[in-house]
């Protein structure tokens, strides 16, 4: 059961990550370019994949590292081609898949356990705060690994936070609609 469950989680999470990436870069980024033409950057102001990273780490804990890895790796190869195998990009992949689970684990060690539990309602604002912390650490470490300019850190942070918020909002509306129709 354990191996089958991990394979299933990996498939779902990686597909969700890929879907969020393609929605972000094939739909939202072109719209962003129309409204913000001066914002010539690879950073999306609405980066939905961050929401997938945060929510998978919240739900799966350390299993999210393996669940995210195929999707994140495919995105890096799609975006960077052969450059995905350079040390800085491999560091970026490692950062993207490990930081979310690490932050939730550290918060738990500090006495702030946000893990889903039977009988306990999720604290969505708390998950947003965790998502902000994850974004801060991910942004600083990734941009350091890539040697990016300081202003890109802020763009990534904005995109991550808005991406998490809107992904949570979209999921809330979907689940509310499903409950309304008895699904």
Q: Alpha-carbon distance between the termini? A: 26 Å
What is the total tally of β strands? Answer: 0
Q: State the major sheet.
A: none
Name of the level-1 CATH class: Mainly Alpha
What does this molecule look like?
With 183 residues, the chain is mainly α. It has helices at 2-35, 48-60, 63-80, 87-109, 124-146, 150-180. The protein has one domain (2-180): Arp2/3 complex 21 kDa subunit ARPC3, CATH 1.10.1760. It contains 6 helices and no strands. Helix 1 crosses helix 3 (63-80), helix 3 packs antiparallel against helix 4 (87-109) and helix 4 packs antiparallel against helix 5. The longest helix has 34 residues, at 2-35. The chain is globular and about 45 Å long.
Outline the secondary-structure elements:
Layout: H1 2-35, H2 48-60, H3 63-80, H4 87-109, H5 124-146, H6 150-180
Helix pairs in contact: 1-2, 1-3, 2-3, 2-4, 2-5, 2-6, 3-4, 4-5, 5-6
In short:
78% of the residues lie in helices and 0% in strands. By secondary structure, the protein is mainly alpha-helical.
Top keywords for this entry?
single chain; 183 residues; mainly alpha
